[in-house]
């Protein structure tokens, strides 16, 4: 049996877990068991599913401390953010437990005046979830909770770097969920491909490259698919913005959890004279504590692997050779872990990858814009379209820019990061494919509608 390892990014010699790389035939077997379990789970009362999800929430509550420590250890998330993520996971489970009891259909006027013409919702059957490592609790739960609430069974393939957290969640849920209702399939991309080949619907979160491959594979089978992918998110700062508040918020949005969020700010577009704001932002970033994610003071921990550290350093060297200035980030943290100093750049040459690609690390570029219109053009000039922020005191400007930004989410005077699980979540262009997730949008994805005519 081939195995894969998950190592702690702050101490790579710390082997967190070694797990199987699940083979395609094992995925097919697991899908068969999940399909058997789907009959009872999906046709049973919604009240039973709601109660089971509430029990899952209680299991997470009782394991909060232990799970927080595991998230810190396995994916290097600063402990404050890790604890908040566990709390969010609990809230997600409770929210979707209640949604299981919401009205599920509509009644329409029948053509004959007497029939009962109505709709009901049915689960798809077995839903395959493919998830990244950066929110190892929240993302699996914001997919699994609605999938289960609406009567599907779930096969979850976590990213290898978050295998231990996924397995621990499943252990915590074992008493609440019948056998075969939620199964973790550890493994690499081949396991994910086999899952797309075996499931009745697929929900993916990860990079654009992998998401596009998943979307094509699922479309070939004709199954419902949603993919939430990467971002290259801009914050626009207008001259009338509260400059200090904007600098503080953008520093956290760009560098929190070492920039490893799909919603992190990568480009800061300043209307007017950019230099004073760039200095403010660099100072706010330089003040962020970098180090051991288990230390409650830490804001910027390690990166998940050595590869993105090397990629960011090479990109910064390339941009500098093209004339960019490093405003902060030249002094690299010491230690064994995969750390990168939070880095702010100015004068990045036009066309540089730092202005168009997702580096998924603690690096951002400050760009000047002559006008608000020019700022919007720059913000929209990427293949991604996840989220944007606008900093201004002018309501009319905020509303105008909100309408012009090609993104799925706009934050006014708020960081690009931060997700509300009870509101629709998703992006535009290459950031998303398929329907939105979370909130009430989740039910549309995890069910299909049946139209029924009942004539007496
Ligand atoms: P990733 O490399 O794309 O992997 C995501 C998941 O897809 C992993 O479980 C991965 O397994 C699997 N996978 C890769 N290729 C596949 C294929 N051909 N078929 C099926 N499954 C496949 O992303 P990551 O490094 O884990 O996470 C970082 C990325 O996620 C960033 O781009 C970030 O922006 C994005 N993200 C997006 C959101 C959002 O909601 N928009 C939220 C969080 C993160 P292996 O790792 O074994 O290949």
Shape: globular
**CATH hierarchy class name of the largest domain:** Alpha Beta
Query: Span from first to last CA?
Result: 59 Å
The assigned CATH architecture of the largest domain is 3-Layer(aba) Sandwich
Averaging pLDDT over every residue, what do you get? 98
Report the β-strand fraction as a percent range.
Answer: 15-25%
Strand arrangement, largest sheet? 12-13-14-11-10-16-17
The helicity comes to 40-55%
User: How many helical elements?
Assistant: 14
Kindly name the structural category.
alpha/beta
Q: Structurally, how many domains make up the residues?
A: 2
- Count of distinct strands: 20
The distinct ligands, each listed once, are: NADP nicotinamide-adenine-dinucleotide phosphate
What would CATH call the homologous superfamily of the largest domain?
Answer: Aldehyde Dehydrogenase, Chain A, domain 1
Low-confidence stretches: none
Rg calc: 23 Å
Biggest sheet, in brief? 7 strands, mixed
Q: Would you tell me which CATH topology of the largest domain applies?
A: Aldehyde Dehydrogenase, Chain A, domain 1
Keywords, separated by commas or semicolons:
Aldehyde Dehydrogenase, Chain A, domain 1; 2 domains; 21% strand; binds NADP nicotinamide-adenine-dinucleotide phosphate; six-stranded mixed β-sheet; seven-stranded mixed β-sheet; Aldehyde Dehydrogenase, Chain A, domain 2; globular
């Amino acid at each position: 049996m081939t195995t894969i390892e998950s190592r702690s990014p702050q101490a790579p010699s710390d082997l967190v877990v070694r797990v199987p790389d699940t083979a395609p035939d094992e995925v097919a077997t697991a899908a068969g068991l999940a399909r058997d379990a789907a009959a009872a789970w999906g046709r049973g009362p919604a009240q039973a599913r709601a109660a089971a999800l509430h029990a899952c929430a209680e299991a997470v509550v009782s394991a909060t401390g232990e799970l927080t420590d595991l998230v810190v250890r396995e994916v290097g998330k600063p402990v404050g953010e890790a604890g908040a993520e566990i709390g969010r996971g609990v809230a997600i489970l409770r929210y979707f437990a209640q949604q299981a009891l919401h009205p599920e259909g509509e009644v329409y006027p029948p053509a004959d005046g007497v029939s009962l013409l109505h709709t009901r919702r049915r689960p798809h059957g077995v839903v395959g979830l493919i998830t990244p490592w950066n929110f190892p609790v929240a993302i699996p739960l914001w997919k699994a909770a609605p999938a289960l609430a609406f009567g599907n069974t779930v096969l979850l393939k976590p990213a290898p770097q978050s295998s231990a957290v996924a397995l621990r969640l499943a252990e915590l849920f074992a008493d609440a969920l019948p056998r075969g209702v939620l199964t973790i399939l550890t493994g690499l991309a081949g396991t994910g491909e086999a899952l797309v080949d075996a499931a009745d619907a697929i929900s993916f979160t990860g990079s654009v490259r992998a998401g596009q491959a998943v979307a094509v594979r699922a479309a070939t089978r004709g199954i419902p698919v949603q993919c939430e992918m990467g971002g290259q998110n801009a914050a626009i700062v207008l001259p009338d913005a509260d400059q200090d508040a904007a600098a503080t918020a953008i520093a956290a949005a760009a560098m929190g959890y070492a920039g490893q969020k799909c919603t992190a700010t990568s480009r800061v577009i300043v209307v007017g004279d950019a230099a004073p704001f760039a200095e403010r932002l660099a100072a706010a970033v330089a003040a962020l504590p970098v180090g051991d994610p288990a230390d409650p003071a830490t804001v910027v921990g390690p990166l998940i692997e050595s590869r993105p550290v090397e990629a960011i350093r090479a990109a910064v060297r390339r941009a500098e050779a093209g004339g960019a200035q490093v405003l902060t980030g030249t002094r690299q943290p010491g230690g064994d872990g995969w750390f990168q100093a939070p880095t702010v750049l100015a004068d990045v040459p036009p066309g540089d990858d730092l202005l168009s690609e997702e580096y998924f690390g603690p690096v951002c570029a400050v760009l000047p814009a002559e006008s608000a219109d020019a700022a919007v053009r720059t913000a929209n000039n990427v293949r991604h379209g996840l989220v944007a922020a606008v900093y201004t005191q002018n309501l009319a400007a905020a509303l105008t820019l909100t309408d012009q930004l090609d993104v799925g989410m706009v934050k006014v005077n708020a960081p690009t990061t931060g997700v509300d699980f009870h509101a629709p979540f998703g992006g535009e262009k290459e950031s998303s494919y398929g329907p939105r997730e979370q909130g009430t949008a989740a039910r549309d994805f995890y069910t299909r509608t049946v139209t029924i005519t009942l004539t007496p």
